[in-house]
TrEMBL record:
Protein name: 7-cyano-7-deazaguanine synthase
Example of a GO biological process term: tRNA queuosine(34) biosynthetic process
Record EC number: 6.3.4.20
Record key words, sorted: ATP-binding, Ligase, Metal-binding, Nucleotide-binding, Queuosine biosynthesis, Zinc
Species assigned in the record: Sulfurimonas gotlandica (strain DSM 19862 / JCM 16533 / GD1)
Recorded catalytic activity of this chain's protein: 7-carboxy-7-carbaguanine + NH4(+) + 2 ATP = 7-cyano-7-carbaguanine + 2 AMP + 2 diphosphate + 2 H(+)
Claim: ATP-binding is one of the keywords in the record: yes
Length: 224
């Protein structure tokens, strides 16, 4: 493939991890195609707003926003079912109630369709295995198996690599790397509960705040 035509389809939630992954792809010389999912999550409006602002900063020419309303119908997650409370008591053992059943598998399947259409040779996803909330669909072994399945199920000439540059990083390292690359962390959102000021007590806020604390810098977003 011509070096000038390298395209990376970046799955971007508006959060820190997927945003850093996209900036890393751009720094590696890829043209960024941005992909965002609205799946009836609690902070859908805020995440979409962040996605647009990040794409503007990245100078993204091509972006896709896909609406997946069936996640609300499936439910079974505090992110998509308003009757299930988002836990605020700290990280729990096992798979938390904020896990959305097979979300990354569904996202990657749809990303594969867009990547094949666009002729992208890379899909970038910001999964973090070591310092995440314990989601099974963030494991490196799982993402590798999805890469294999995607290549088995697409045209012979389609060859897609799934890059997960953050999979072995801790949140503090993600903060440090973001600062090194001038990633606009003020445009990112991590809170599971709120869309105006971050709650500071859900799993995602706790992981984020702890990452900033260990990195020795303050988080630029507003908290309650």
């Amino acid at each position: 493939m011509n070096e000038q035509n390298k395209k990376a389809l970046c799955v971007m939630s508006g959060g820190m991890d997927s945003t850093l992954s996209a900036y890393m792809m751009k720094n590696s010389g890829y043209e960024i195609i941005a992909l965002h999912f609205n799946y009836n999550q609690r902070t859908q409006k805020k995440e979409l707003e962040c996605f647009h602002k990040i794409c503007e900063d990245l100078d993204v020419k091509e972006k896709y926003i896909l609406d997946l309303d069936f996640f609300a119908q499936i439910g079974a997650s505090a992110l998509t079912d308003k009757s299930i409370e988002v836990p605020i008591g700290g990280i729990e053992e096992g798979v938390p109630v904020t896990y959305v059943p097979f979300r990354n598998g569904i996202f990657l399947s749809m990303a594969a369709a867009v990547a094949e259409k666009e002729g992208a040779n890379v899909i970038s996803i910001g999964v973090v295995e070591e310092d995440s909330s314990g989601y099974p669909d963030c494991r490196e072994s799982y993402i590798n198996s999805m890469e294999q399945s995607i290549n088995l199920g697409t045209k012979d000439e389609t060859n897609i690599e799934i890059k997960m540059p953050l999979v072995h990083l801790k949140k503090s390292q993600i903060v440090q790397k973001s600062l090194e690359l001038n990633v606009p962390l003020s445009l990112t959102w991590s809170c599971y509960k709120n869309e105006d000021k971050a709650c500071g007590v859900c799993d995602s806020c706790r992981l984020r705040l702890n990452g900033f604390k260990l990195a020795g810098v303050s988080d630029p977003i507003d908290y309650e």
